[in-house]
């Protein structure tokens, strides 16, 4: 059954692959948002934050745009065919960074542990860089779509480290 589903999905048009990848990425991003939402009004408002901490209203729109760009990038890579080992490796790295992304929300907001979240986001940052490097030879535009993501996560890493140090 799994192979049949995988063949069916891989035979989809490039447009469908991009749409499916965006939908999956937004779904995973929504999971992070649900984890985050509960802690924003309680624990997060009570902890010390650095002066450069953006307003809470910034995060939702920024992450939505980033998830769409990430999904678009993954769809472009997937459109090159899963039979190519470079494509499978690149999408595996993409999957790992998505897992680390969701895990960060669980660690930071769910477990209220900026220290563990800092370890996770550092690994996330490294994995995004590896993902960009893996995407570039397959589809350079897909790698460029991840640049705003790596920049935002770089900023989020500094923010996470500052919160950890302040608390």
Order of helices and strands: HHHHHHHH
Number of discrete helical segments: 8
CATH class: Mainly Alpha
Largest sheet descriptor: none
State the CATH superfamily name. TspO/MBR protein
Query: What integer is the average pLDDT?
Result: 92
Outline the low-pLDDT stretches: none
Shape by Cα distribution? elongated
Helical amount among residues, as a percent range?
over 70%
Report how far the terminal alpha carbons are from each other.
50 Å
The number of distinct β-strands equals: 0
Oligomer: single chain
Number of domains: 1
| Class by SSE composition | mainly alpha
Strand residue content:
under 5%
Computed Rg: 17 Å
Describe the structure.
The protein has a single domain, classed as Ferritin (Up-down Bundle). α2 (14-40) runs antiparallel to α4 (56-78) and α6 (114-135) packs antiparallel against α8. It is mainly alpha-helical and 167 residues long. The protein has eight helices and no strands.
């Amino acid at each position: 059954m799994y192979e049949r589903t995988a063949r069916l999905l891989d035979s989809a048009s490039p447009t469908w692959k991009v749409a499916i990848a965006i939908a999956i990425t937004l779904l995973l991003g929504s999971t992070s948002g649900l984890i985050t939402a509960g802690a924003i009004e309680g624990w997060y408002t009570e902890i010390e934050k650095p002066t450069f901490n953006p307003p809470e209203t910034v995060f939702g729109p920024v992450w939505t745009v980033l998830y769409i760009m990430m999904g678009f990038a993954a769809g472009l890579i997937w459109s090159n065919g899963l039979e190519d080992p470079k494509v499978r490796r690149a999408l595996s790295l993409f999957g790992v960074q998505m897992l680390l992304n969701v895990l960060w929300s669980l660690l930071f907001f769910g477990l209220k542990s900026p220290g563990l979240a800092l370890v996770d986001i550092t690994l996330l940052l490294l994995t995004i860089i590896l993902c960009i490097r893996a995407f570039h030879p397959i589809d350079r535009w897909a790698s460029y779509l991840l640049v705003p993501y790596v920049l935002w996560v770089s900023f989020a890493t500094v923010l996470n480290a500052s919160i950890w140090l302040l608390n």
